[in-house]
Design goal:
alpha+beta; 5-stranded antiparallel β-sheet; single chain; 37% helix; 4-stranded antiparallel β-sheet; 30% strand
């Protein structure tokens, strides 16, 4: 297992009383990539990702990836500086809810033990069969960020590799699977067996890929 973790970059640009944050880092899951997130008021408004294609297995590769991180970060910061006014204007406009992925979510919620399901996209947006509120969008961003951390920790520690994970919420469990750069989130009772549900969910996700 690779233990090389490149240093990330963080920058902030102030425009019209708003602070736009830019963070670039190497992420190992769902596939090794260099990811830059542009955030405004705690909400990810853009995400730029470039595939690396493999884990970092040597000090030489670590230096190469850090140079790529610096290059991508500089380029995005320059673009944000140039288009800061547009980014602020667009982000403060009325949000447009993207349509849910009906076939996938309908298949998931049709499973007997599933109580609800939604998708957190790679941009931190929430796709759901129900109306999406601002509070739900913020929760989706938090889940996406937390899930990135959980998967990365498993690969930077002795926990080993993982393809999915479970977050216990007391009486319920939140099952998380990678899906199109984001995550499929499924709520089930904490009392039921998860193995069979995960098997069914993976079949649905792979069929929808």
């Amino acid at each position: 297992m690779s233990n090389y973790i490149p240093a990330g970059r963080l920058a902030a640009i102030n425009h019209g009383g708003q602070k736009i944050e830019i963070q670039t880092e190497f992420s190992k899951y769902p596939e090794p990539r260099i990811a830059t997130a542009v955030s405004l008021a705690g909400r990810v408004i853009h995400k730029i990702q470039k595939q690396w294609g493999k884990q970092i297995d040597s000090l030489e590769e670590l230096h190469i990836v850090e140079e790529l991180i610096n290059k991508q970060h500089r380029e995005v910061v320059a673009l944000v500086n140039e288009h800061a006014a547009t980014l602020v204007a667009q982000s403060t406009a009325a949000p447009v809810t993207k349509p849910a992925a009906p076939n996938l979510l309908e298949s998931v919620t049709a499973l007997p033990d599933v109580e609800s399901a939604f998708i957190v996209t790679s941009e931190g947006k929430l796709l759901s069969q129900q109306r999406v509120t601002k509070e739900a969008e913020l929760m989706a961003q938090m889940i996406g960020q937390l899930t990135d951390v959980l998967f990365d920790i498993s690969r930077a520690s002795n926990f080993g590799e993982c393809e999915d994970c479970i977050i216990n919420l007391g009486s319920h469990d939140l099952l998380l699977l990678p899906y199109q750069g984001g995550y499929l989130s499924v709520l089930v009772s904490a009392r039921i067996r998860k193995k069979e549900i995960f098997e069914s969910l993976w079949k649905i996700v792979k069929a929808a890929a």
